[in-house]
Design goal:
Helix content is about 15%, strand content about 35%. The longest helix has 28 residues. Strands 1, 2, 3, 4, 5, 10, 14, 15 and 16 form a 9-stranded antiparallel sheet that branches. It has 4 helices and 22 strands.
Amino acid sequence: MTMNHSLISNRTLLLAAFCLSLLAPASRAAERFNLDNGDVSADFDAAGLVQLTLPKGKQGLALANDSAALTVNGEKLVVPGLKLVDVKPQKESVTYTYQAGDKRLQVVYELKPGWQFVSKQLILTLPPGSTSRVDTVEVFRAELETPVAREHKASNGSGAVFLRLGESNPPPKFGAFLALQNPFLKWERKDRQVAMAYAPDLEWRAAYGPFASDRVCIGLYTLSGVDLPAHNIGEWKYVREPQRVFEGQPMLDWAEFDAVTRCVDAFALHRPSKSLRVHVPWCENDYQVDVGTPEGRVEWKRILDQVAAVGCEHTLFTPANSAVAPLKDNADAWGWENCLWLGLGQKIRKGEWDIAKDPIPPSI
């Protein structure tokens, strides 16, 4: 009886372990995470973003099959698809970590206080001592489960796309923007599937640290009902009928302008407490003033005195300097090299002046 009881117990344990192994992937797939800063709420499953919602209006963007891809040395790393080794939800972020042989790829979502958007970024860690080439980065690919009534892609290099969400009739009340922090956005939309990518095509060494992709920012806004032209007309264009000049031209809602402006502002590194007035001296043709001569220095000082008199505390320095950079030595197409880098542009190019150790010439 003891032997039979032991055999049954072992079989029971094996059966329990087998059942748990079957349940583990299902329970992991059912995992849900949420980021909420009071302005916008983001829901995630075991693979990525599934829902973005404006809590106050209960309006949202539903997504499916959120994925990303990064091509390194011709090898395409696609997630999900690689071995998922960790999912780390924190107060302001959710990080998915994947293993790809000797490389590690992380997908990081962030939602910080004051943001009305969530950002997505890929971070690649190379093995120590290695060098790779990062060819292409597809930061975001997903299926839109919320209907799209209208799409507008900014064509001025802003890397932003605006979607009016909902049915066309009645007109949508809210929308979403998708912006890539790179002016060379490759946007794709086919049926419900959308993708945002760019091609860095650059060498990356492990010694530089992890490679961090440019971010995709996905945000929501409530439409204001006030439309403005998406693009200004050229100042050289003659307008015969001003009231009809924007007929048939693309328009954006005020909220769409405001949403992207706030997104850009969220990443500003410098926040001055007052406006900064900078004098631009080439308005006085200072590139024709030769500060390599005593007369030229007196002339340029007179410019500085007048700048100070009107309250400016900053100016560009772009005069000529024959003592340091003769015009005949310029090698650039515009013939401005002698004015660059405080007049040291030529010497820097020729390797005759090292910014780290060489003194600034007396004439400068």
